[in-house]
Amino acid sequence: NLQESESENKLDGETASDSESKSEFGGSPPVPTSDDTPEVLNRALSNLSSRWKNWWVRGILTLAMITFFFIIIYLGPMVLMTIVMCVQIKCFHEIITIGYNVYHSYDLPWFRTLSWYFLLCVNYFFYGETVTDYFFTLVQREEPLRILSKYHRFISFALYLTGFCMFVLSLVKKHYRLQFYMFGWTHVTLLIVVTQSHLIIHNLFEGMIWFIVPISCVICNDIMAYMFGFFFGRTPLIKLSPKKTWEGFIGGFFATVLFGLLLSYVMSGYRCFTCPVEFNNDTNSFTVDCEPSELFQLQEYNIPLVLQSVVGWKTVRMYPFQIHSIALSTFASLIGPFGGFFASGFKRAFKIKDFANTIPGHGGIMDRFDCQYLMATFVNVYIASFIRGPNPSKLIQQFLTLRPDQQLHIFNTLRAHLVDKGMLGSLEDA
Hints:
This protein is mostly helical and 430 residues long. The protein has one domain (46-386). Helix content is 71%, strand content 5%. The protein has helices at 2-11, 16-24, 39-44, 50-75, 77-103, 111-134, 136-141, 143-150, 152-170, 176-205, 208-232, 246-267, 271-274, 305-311, 320-334, 337-349, 365-387, 392-400, 404-420, 423-429, and strands spanning 236-238, 241-245, 278-280, 285-287, 299-302, 315-318. A hairpin with a 2-residue loop joins strand 1 and strand 2 (241-245).
């Protein structure tokens, strides 16, 4: 019996050190929460089996969330940025609440207060960096913003240092290890949730298409993997998520790549989706209007000889962004689910079913966005590595904020460089 119990513990990933930590964290794990399904759905689906009832609840709530997603897209990038921040705060709250439930019986001071304070500090730092980077002319025009921008990093460090000192002062004898556990818990949560949510905002400012397509691919993969797994699933995929199957994983991949190609084709034809968000000094408003780049202009591509006999075409006209969408949808299908597996391992470690019961049939907000954060990081890295180049408009904005003598020095240096290359002479002749 002893050997059997030890093997069970090993299967669950628990070691002796885990048992010691468990006793220090209060002995018993948090009590799992159940989904608060609306009464109207309970009555309407009362005659169905639990399997099909869950299918309908998830389906109805999924359609509701997709409808809400379309509404906020219609409202524009600033509303989207606000929604991202609200989701970030809710995800942070769900993870911190799990930590609080683990050790609340110790009555240790300032854990929640310091957690939310550090969230405020990190958000102040990231939003300040974002505003300065993307809306430089607005910052330079307003005196208070210019001062805050100039000393932004010093102010951010001072705020964090205040929280650090408060944590040291809150240390209680005999509970040092536990308090440092929770300090680390808070900072890892900030790294996972806050940092990556700001990468989502950076992607959004590059153009709404870089925000909508990746998020939609993750949503599509989640839905199609569930559908294929529900109807055809037979082979378990991973022990961390017993309900995930190979049939759902593979079916979701092909469906997501096809969906990404179609969605990219539709969105690439609209400037409101492809243009970056910029601040217009003349109208004092944020605008999304530009001349589409080469990524969003139809081009003709030769189809490989192997496929020509199958499809019957020699060439195809498509947007270059559609090729990039294949990379995005492939990541969303093959690597993105590992964000969900990571979250599943986290929940199994604390023996909880969901992060919260915010959305009936789906769990908490973090349960819906566990893959989105991993996807956001990939998109940001992808843009920086393969898409983004020097931005002439930003360089000109910064150039105009310099002193006249600095502007003249840069002008003379650039003029001499162009003359040496023979470009200025040809321009003058023209």
